[in-house]
């Protein structure tokens, strides 16, 4: 019954978002991996929840795919989509904006860290903890990538970063994102993609799009 209630609430929120004007962000949405170029012929977008085990499984592979093709051939962009039934997902997502505001070059490393330590933020692990306990857990992880705890703590009380995270979620809803990970290849939803997809699976999808093109640095 509880899961059914979550689903009803989630659907209602999605419908409300799709039918209303999303606030305009101060910069283009999403975080680009490793300097992926906007002129790249292949754009791969992933909507992720940093506390989602399926996203954690898919994350290393899609990074390898982006590195394999290189930034001039494939732009990999990450969008944050905290799921409402993952209690700490929103704070984890907001912390990314805090890190981006501090040093944008650390964003991917910070996502790596959150995925690697994801179990510390699971619902079952934090059931007896309050919001401030969870903030401290996330802030403590910042030291793993050289980010002072105060950066994370201040960022999690920053109204601008809160709004950025809300806009990111609403944008995902407007793109019909309903779970994570959710992939788009050149703006088209990849219906068959699963968290267990290998680099080879992605190559079978991407390589045919690059045939008969003269793209420097790409080899079939």
Describe this structure in words.
The protein is of the alpha+beta class and 220 residues long. The chain contains eight helices and five strands; from the N terminus they run H-E-E-H-E-H-H-H-H-H-E-E-H. It has helices at 2-18, 53-69, 89-102, 107-116, 131-142, 149-155, 159-174, 199-210; strands at residues 31-32, 42-48, 74-80, 182-185, 188-189. The protein has a five-stranded mixed beta sheet, sandwiched between helices. Helix 1 (2-18) crosses helix 7 and helix 3 crosses helix 6. The longest helix is centred in the N-terminal third of the chain and has 17 residues, at 2-18. It is globular, with a radius of gyration of 18 Å. The model has no long low-confidence stretch (mean pLDDT 91).
Brief summary of the model shown:
With 220 residues, the protein is of the alpha+beta class. The chain has helices spanning 2-18, 53-69, 89-102, 107-116, 131-142, 149-155, 159-174, 199-210; strands at residues 31-32, 42-48, 74-80, 182-185, 188-189. It is built from 8 helices and 5 strands.
The oligomeric state of the chains shown is: single chain
Could you tell me the number of beta strands? Answer: 5
**Approximately how much beta-strand content do the residues carry?**
5-15%
| SSE string, helices as H and strands as E | HEEHEHHHHHEEH
| Largest sheet, spatial ordering of strands | 1-3-2-4-5
Distance between the termini: 50 Å
The gross shape turns out to be: globular
What integer is the average pLDDT? 91
Largest sheet: 5 strands, mixed
The secondary-structure class comes to alpha+beta
| Uncertain runs | none
Helix content: 40-55%
- Total of helices: 8
Query: Radius of gyration, Cα only, in angstroms?
Result: 18 Å
């Amino acid at each position: 019954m509880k899961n059914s209630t979550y689903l009803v609430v989630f659907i209602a929120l999605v419908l409300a978002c799709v039918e209303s004007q999303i606030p305009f962000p101060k910069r283009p949405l999403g975080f680009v991996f490793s300097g992926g170029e906007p002129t790249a012929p292949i754009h791969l977008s992933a909507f992720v929840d940093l506390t989602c085990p399926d996203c954690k499984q898919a994350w290393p592979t899609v990074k390898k795919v982006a590195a394999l093709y290189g930034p001039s051939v494939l732009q990999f962009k990450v969008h944050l989509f905290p799921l409402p039934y993952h209690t700490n997902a929103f704070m984890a997502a907001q912390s990314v904006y805090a890190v981006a505001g501090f040093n944008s070059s650390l964003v991917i490393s910070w996502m790596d860290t959150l995925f690697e330590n994801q179990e510390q933020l699971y619902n079952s692990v934090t059931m007896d903890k309050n919001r401030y306990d969870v903030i401290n857990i996330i802030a403590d992880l910042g030291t793993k990538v050289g980010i002072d705890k105060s950066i994370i703590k201040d960022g999690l009380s920053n109204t601008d970063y809160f709004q950025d995270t809300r806009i990111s979620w609403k944008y995902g809803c407007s793109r019909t994102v309903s779970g994570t990970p959710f992939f788009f290849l050149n703006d088209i939803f990849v219906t068959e993609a699963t968290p267990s997809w290998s680099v080879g699976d992605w190559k079978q999808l991407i390589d045919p799009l690059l045939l008969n093109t003269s793209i420097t640095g790409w080899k079939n």
